[in-house]
Amino acid sequence: xxxxxxxxxxxxxxxxxxxxxxxxxxVKDIKNEVSSIRERDxxxxxxxxxxxxxxxxxxxxxxRVAHALQTSGRVxxxxxxxxxxxxxxxxxxxxxxxxxxxxxxxxxxxxxxxxTSVIGDNCTIYQxxxxxxxGKNVGKxxxxxxxxxxxxxxxxxxxxxxxxxxxxxxxxxxxLKDVPANSTAVGIPARIVDRGAKKAQKFDCDQMNIPDPVxxxxxxxxxxxAQLESKVNGSEDKDVNDEQ
Length: 244
What we know:
Elements lengths: L8 H8 L3 H21 L6 H7 L1 H17 L3 H15 L2 E2 L4 E2 L4 E2 L6 E2 L4 E2 L4 E2 L4 E3 L11 E2 L4 E2 L4 E3 L3 E2 L4 E2 L4 E2 L8 E3 L4 E3 L19 H31 L1
Parallel strand pairs: 1-4, 2-5, 3-6, 4-7, 5-8, 6-9, 7-10, 8-11, 9-12, 10-13, 12-14
Antiparallel strand pairs: 14-15
Helix pairs in contact: 1-2, 2-4, 4-5
């Protein structure tokens, strides 16, 4: 991997004036993220391809630089870099957000991560996802995402809510309330299905095998109708026999 890896901590210090310890951490995090992307994405051929062609990784690198500047008090420069990243990648990550290790932003277009968002380790976010606030509240107003969480394409997670470890947010869901660990949220507004299900595997990127609560309710309704029809038919047969 080092053969292709041309991001150097000293270069970050020279170009952006970041403290050396923060620059070293940025390089370490990006190296880990390249490896985690290759583990999760079957289309990734090698480290060089991931490093040069994946906009999610580019946005994350620029976020980590901007976040280091933000925490050093250089707020305007941090915001400037985040807006440059948005123009280059189509992904907007506020430099005030807190992001853990090995985040994979797949495809990336139209992803928005708000200022007070917190994201744990080993999470996967697909295109069109918003981690947004609600109204004009100040302070903590964006979601907190646990470890090993998968958020499907187009999902919206809004407000200062908590998504527990190993949770899944289905594609297109609008989540307005907390989601417990090891659960799946589906629909608009999102409802919890598979509450307390078996712990997900690390780097779980499956958007397909998610329960459909509407289909489940329709099946239950169909079953109930069949039971009622059976009772009605049985009652009618009894009345006919009594008349005879």
